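Hello support,

Our group uses your service weekly, and this is the first time we've seen a run hang past the timeout. The protein is guanylate kinase. I'm not sure whether the cause is the sequence or the server load. Input pasted verbatim:
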Amino acid sequence: MLKILLRGLALNSITNLLRLFATMVQKGPRPLVLCGPSGSGKSTLLKRLLNDFPDKFGFSVSHTTRGPRPGEKDGVHYHFTNKSDMIAAVEKGEFIETATFSGNMYGTSKRAVEDVRCTGKTCILDIEIEGVKQIKQTDLDPLLVFVMPPNIEQLEKRLRARNTEQEDALKKRLETASREIVYGQEPGNFHIIIVNDNLDKAYSELRDFVSQNLQSSEPGVLDY
Ligand SMILES: Nc1ncnc2c1ncn2[C@@H]1O[C@H](COP(=O)(O)OP(=O)(O)OP(=O)(O)O)[C@@H](O)[C@H]1O
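Update from on-call engineer: The timeout came from a worker crash unrelated to the input. Re-ran successfully.
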C-alpha cells in the first residue's frame, strides 16, 4: 500500500516537474524574427525599435569556435566552444542558424533564444531564409516579419549609397535578394510583409505589429 502511495507521489512529482518545465519554456514573449534582403532596412528599423523600447528586447548569445579575445566572457559575449562539440550540436538540431567566417563557426542555438525569453524580453533574431526555415521546425513559436525593399532598383541604390560592399559582393547580394523576395512573398511564410518604401510608414507598421502581437498576458508589464 505504502509502495503504491509512494509511486503515486513520485509520478505526481514528475508530472509537476514536467509542468513546471513546460511553463518555464513557454514563459515570456515570443521571439521576433526580422528577415529580408541585405539592404532592405532591417537594421534601420530595429534601431528605431530599440531606441523607442530599450528594455523590451534582448539578443541571444551566439556560439563560436573562435577563441575569446581579451575581455570577452563565456556566456556573455559568446558561448565559446570547439569545432567537434559544435558540429555534434548542429547535427542534433540544436542550432537555428550557423555560418563560417575565417574558418571559425558561429551560430544561434535554440537554447540561447529560450534563455532570452525566460528573462521576459523579446528575443530579436535577424536571420536569413535558411534560418527562418529552421526556426519554423522548432517549438520557439516566433513572430515572422519579412522586410521588403520597394524594388530591386531601389535596393541597389541603397546598397550603393551605404557603401559597405565591393562590386562583386553587391552583385551577389542583389542576386540573393531576388530569390529571398520570392520566398518572402509566398503566402504563409511570414506573418507580415513590410514594404520599406518609406521609413516612417514601415516603422509604424512594424511597431503596430509588435505591439499587437507581443503584449504580455500581465497588463502593464510589456506595454509596447
Ligand atoms: N525607407 C528607406 N528609404 C531610404 N533609405 C533607407 C530606407 N530604409 C533604410 N534605408 C537605407 O538603406 C541602407 C540599408 O539599410 P540597412 O542597413 O538597415 O539594411 P539591412 O537590411 O539591415 O542590411 P544588412 O542585412 O546588409 O545588414 C541604409 O543605408 C539605410 O540608411
